[in-house]
């Protein structure tokens, strides 16, 4: 009789053992899917951070090479830098816009007077400005009796070429 009861119990437990094995396999599969989901979530967060960093770089690029020459705003900033450094600017003469394949350049001929360290500080400050600008020509005449230099230089500012120019 005991054997019969033991056999019945074992036969009744077999489907339960099979069901337990199936449930454990399901748990492992769901844990694997959860791990994949967590990785995707991490990847999405990294992608969002990359997008934000790219947008910030794009803003910085737009400041360096804007779509327009916007001379008035640049001249105001240039004047502020000259005042801050002590450079006495006597003339800013815009030249002719030069058209490249991907950009436009506007040369500005600038005449100024200051001690050389002041002029050097001005150039360093211009370089630190977000707008892309290059010094293309430079003439310095020393006036040692006055402790200053007369400087004439060409500073070119750049903008993207417009679509109809390309």
Q: Helix amount, in percent?
A: 40-55%
How many domain units? 2
Structural class: alpha+beta
CATH C-level class of the largest domain is: Alpha Beta
Q: What is the number of E strands?
A: 5
* SSE succession: HHEEEHEE
Number of helices: 3
Looking at this structure, what is the CATH superfamily of the largest domain? Ribosomal protein S6/Translation elongation factor EF1B
Strand portion: 25-35%
Based on CA inertia axes, which overall geometry fits? rod-shaped
Q: Taking all residues together, what is the mean pLDDT?
A: 84
Specify the biggest β-sheet.
Answer: 5 strands, antiparallel
CATH topology of the largest domain: Alpha-Beta Plaits
CATH architecture of the largest domain: 2-Layer Sandwich
Q: What does the radius of gyration come to? A: 36 Å
Low-pLDDT sequence parts: none
In words, what does this structure look like?
With 166 residues, this protein is an alpha+beta fold. It folds into two domains: 1-64; 71-160, Alpha-Beta Plaits (2-Layer Sandwich). It is built from three helices and five strands, in the order ααβββαββ. Strands 1, 2, 3, 4 and 5 form a five-stranded antiparallel β-sheet that branches. A hairpin with a 4-residue loop joins strand 4 and strand 5. Helix 2 (71-85) crosses helix 3. It is rod-shaped. It starts with a helix and ends in a 6-residue tail after the last strand. The mean pLDDT is 84.
